[in-house]
Design brief:
Layout: E1 7-9, E2 15-18, E3 39-44, E4 57-62, E5 73-75, E6 93-95, E7 111-119, E8 124-133, E9 140-144, E10 148-155, E11 158-162, E12 165-169, E13 173-177, E14 183-187, E15 192-199, E16 223-226, E17 234-243, E18 246-254, E19 259-264, E20 269-272, E21 293-298, E22 305-312, E23 315-317, E24 334-342, E25 356-359, H1 369-377, E26 383-385, E27 388-395, E28 400-401, H2 417-420
Parallel strand pairs: 9-17
Antiparallel strand pairs: 1-16, 2-19, 3-4, 4-19, 5-18, 6-25, 7-8, 7-28, 8-15, 10-13, 10-15, 11-12, 11-14, 13-20, 16-20, 17-18, 21-22, 22-27, 23-26, 24-25, 24-27
Amino acid sequence: MTKEYTYQTGFGSYWQSEALPGALPQGQNSPQKPPFGLYAEQLSGSAFTRARHLNYRSWLYRILPSVVHSPFQAIAHEGITLETQNAPRPTQMRWHAMASPHKPTDFIDGLKTLLFNGAPSQHQGAAIHLYAANTDMGNRYFYSADGEWLIVPYEGDCELSTEFGKLTLSVGEIAVIPRGVRFQVNLLSPTIKGYICENFGSPLTLPDLGPIGSNGLANPKDFLIPHAAYEEKQGDYVLLGKFNHQLWQAYLNYSPLNVVAWHGNYAPYKYNLSHFNTINTVSYDHCDPSIFTVLTSQSAYPGVANIDFVIFPERWMVAEHTFRPPYYHRNVMSEFMGLIQGHYDAKADGFVPGGGSLHNMMSGHGPDKETTLQAINAKLIPQKQTNTLAFMLESCLPWATTAFAFDPNLLQSNYHDCWQEIPILFNANER
């Protein structure tokens, strides 16, 4: 087997990898007899007839085909089966961080759905989950037929073992597991916690740069893709699948991570957010938050995102005669904010790592009273924003809430108070 934690680089490339030299067939994708007695299987992440640059697929050369398992049976999972849900609402909401589990809990058992929109059956929208785990997945493996998983940790390190190889994931990094890819999460820290955006729409990709030019934002070369690594082991294993918001279970007697070689452009990847090249201003007015977009999933309407993943990292704040924090705002898009580490420059308190806030379309939001008054009276000198890493999941569809979103241990009932004492400074006699 190849050495663990070796990576290929480049976003949107066509990669190939083999754990045994000679395992990749030459010329044909599906020869009559693949090397080493392997089976050829194609994993398609898009319709066969999509344009070449939007056609996602990989060929997997595996010990057993993925179809070798018992029939699926639906099982209960209080966290991700949407038995109770609420219509989208305009009320601004904010949450505390989720508590750590007190009993052995793996990555799947520790999932809780907070928000969702659209529908996986229609290939649009997304769900936002929180996770907290303190034990490995053991003999359990998982995939989602509903959408690709963007995993954003804020506590602890873990190892993602996938059909394509292994990825380690630490705070300050993100990982994306494509729709349908089977994987397992094992801990490298006592506890792991984070956010997940499950994207039901078109796969995440890098945004166009337009007038920015050829450089800036996330660089394709900084995305890492695993080398092939396979598990050749027999036993009693459980395959969990998420299908139309329902968890399903099947049994198999061989590890599903038995891919010895693969090639294609549909594979898991990770990215270190510290490599993001922030674009900012040196004159007046800071730019719209779209300049902080790392990845985007486009909707059917050009220029309108199904999901944008946006970050607010450490950066220099340089501008002339400008209100520095995020401006007061109402937006046709709906925004969920999360905090990975440090503090967020639009709020003095209440917004913590692991917490979140929701501002649905056309609901006003912006900095609190304390932040506003400090910004109005601040001396405008070059300043570096440090000890911060926040993110936003922005969607053209409004976010609906689950019952879990109203857990009194999580939901902050006094979020609106942060704006209620903003003073009236208006004076008609003074410019």
